Amino acid sequence: MKIFIYFVTLSLILSILYPLTTQASCTDPPKSGVNWERCNFSEKNLSKKNLTKSILKETRFIRTVLNESDLSNSIATRAKFINSSAKNAIFDNAKLREADFTKANLANSSFINADLSSSRLFRANLENSNLTGAKLKGADLLNANLSGATWIDGTTICSQGSLGQCQ
User: Fold this and answer.
1) Nearest CA among 138, 14, 17, 22 for reference residue 75
2) pTM over 0.90
């Protein structure tokens, strides 16, 4: 019985000192490495924020302003950026699988080596954006404005009027 109590006590102490997962705190200020998993930042102004290496899984950024923000190396799987403005934002090396950028303004943004697999970019404005090395397998680019964008090969510049595909 004493051994059982010892192990239960030890397990409780270890679980307090070393939690298995970090809890998201939606009230934390924007900063590098923040955990905003499943938070809602819709209609907020997050311009010029450093959100590098952040956990943003299933987070809602609907109609949010992210202009000139840096989300490099962040994990934003299934995040919602619907109708958001992220002009001149940096998403380099970000994991954006199944993210929804429907009607988002992403002009002049950088997605170098970003994983946009199965993401939705329906009617998104990607004008003059850099998609070098981006993974787009299964991405929905229907009516996305790709005018002047640097394509995934890093050399092709999409022609003016490219909608839904780089021409």
Assistant:
1) 22
2) no
**Residues 19-72: pLDDT tens digits?**
444 456 899 999 999 999 999 999 999 999 999 999 999 999 999 999 999 999
Half-sphere exposure of 123 (CA within 13 A, CB side): 5
Structure-block tokens of residue 42 = 């819709």
Residue type, 33: G
Closest by CA to 104, choosing from 59, 150, 64, is 64
Burial class (CB in 10 A: 0-12, 13-18, 19+), 53: middle
- Rounded CA gap, 112 and 114, in Å? 5
Query: Is domain 1-167 classified as CATH 2.160.20.80?
Result: yes
